[in-house]
Amino acid sequence: MSEVKTFEIPIHLKQLITSNQAFHYRVIPIAKEEGVIHLKTDSPDPQGLQKELSIILGYEVLAISEIAENIQSYLTFNYRKTTNSSNEKLQYEDQFLQKLIATAKDFGSSDIHMEPYEKQCRVRFRLDGKLKEQYTISNTEYPQLINQIKIQSGLDISQKRLAQDGRITFKEGADEFDIRVSTMPTLYGEKIVLRLLNRNTQDVSLEDLGFTEEELKNYREAVKNPQGIVLISGPTGSGKTTTLYATLKELNKETTNILTIEDPIEYTLEGINQVQLREDIEFDFPAALRAFLRQDPDIIMVGEIRDDRTAGMTIKAALTGHLVLSTIHTNSAWATISRLIDMNVPSFLLASTITMSIAQRLVRKLCPHCKQPTTVDSKDFPQSFEIPEELTKHYMAVGCNQCYHTGYMGRKAIYEILPVTKELEKAIRHNELEIDMYIEQNNIKTLQHNATRMVIDGDTSVEEVYALLADN
């Protein structure tokens, strides 16, 4: 791991060139002194490269030869390849914000964080669930960037003491998507988070999310019911919304009237009536649900059950003969039942309406090119975790050129599927909420079980699923 550190370059040098420039010219900035940019390269013609890059970058360039293997490690450690070659001109001919968003989209980032501090401001991208610093901005330039974002998202630029929420529609060539904007006052200025919302549902499919064959069969059986409630739980960023959209895409038929109420609308689905929440005019989840029931729906999707009123209206919608899909923030499939009872949903109504409860998490997958096996040591696992006999070795994240030295490549959803059987319906009705024996006897695959299976199969590391392994 010590060798990996030698390939890291400071953010202020990294942002001197774009990712496309770095990979195209195979150059790495290592210093900037008195208007001269010092670059490492494995180019066979460093002199010619100096002249070309001097014109492009607007600085004098000094190219220093380096072996190809090291250049490749520098590139993959510090930059990510983008799919959009137009980023080159954005750096010099367009605004920094435009370039920032386009780059984040090409990298596959879900969020952009802009954070002011005493001496400078930093920009971080969330990639595969983890934040990584990409740029630094001077404190003198940062307010101008904030105002630009506020103007584009319809926010009040004079209001700096209160949090605000807005929305931007981003267009770059044929690419068009929405961005949710959130501002928050901090000690040194306003922090802004941009959530990139993917409109494209072409690649959203239940088969590709991470369900096992048996889990997918049980899930499809539940959502084919003409009435009842199917709930998906998990923390923010666990993929709940993607699972819902994949489900709606499969249920979307000419003969079916599907209505959704969302905040925000993250994907657009042809043939489905999608409604944006507007709490500023009191058009919240309960108000939308009341309106929905007069629209002759077959299937209703409620973005999130947040409070007692939404929970009550969701139950009412299911009781009147509709299939309702929604999400809720709980730690396990069974904890959802307790949460709804805490929201003052009567046990007898809950028992007769809930069809299935699901919990899910997104887990990073180990890079197949560099993961390394290691022997099982109890110190690597939570104290409460009982190490199964078949776990004789597990794999560690290392990092290589293929995975940008993160040790991981892509993510996979794991699920805990709990169909509400007659036995569970009876338990809910009588508030008998201890079902550990039932889960064991009916071989319900919990999140801990599925996380353990990924470790046994070498798909992920113990470190990545440590919290799930500790969950009893």
Number of helices: 18
Residues in helices, as a percent range: 25-40%
Mean pLDDT metric? 89
General shape:
globular
Gyration radius (Cα, Å) is 25 Å
Strand order of the largest sheet: 12-11-13-14-10-15-18
Low-confidence spans: 1-5, 85-94
Largest β-sheet summary: 7 strands, mixed
Return the structural class. alpha/beta
β-strand amount: 25-35%
- Count every beta strand, where a strand is a DSSP E run of 2 or more residues: 18
Oligomer: single chain
First-residue to last-residue Cα separation? 33 Å
Task: Please write out the topology.
Elements: H1 2-5, H2 11-14, H3 19-25, E1 27-33, E2 36-41, H4 46-57, E3 60-65, H5 68-78, H6 87-93, H7 96-107, E4 111-116, E5 120-127, E6 130-138, H8 142-152, E7 164-172, E8 175-186, E9 189-197, H9 213-223, E10 228-233, H10 240-251, E11 258-262, E12 273-276, H11 285-292, E13 299-302, H12 308-319, E14 323-328, H13 335-342, H14 347-353, E15 354-366, E16 372-375, E17 393-396, E18 408-419, H15 422-429, H16 436-441, H17 447-456, H18 466-469
Parallel strand pairs: 2-3, 10-14, 10-15, 11-12, 11-13, 13-14
Antiparallel strand pairs: 1-2, 4-5, 4-9, 5-6, 7-8, 8-9, 15-18, 16-17
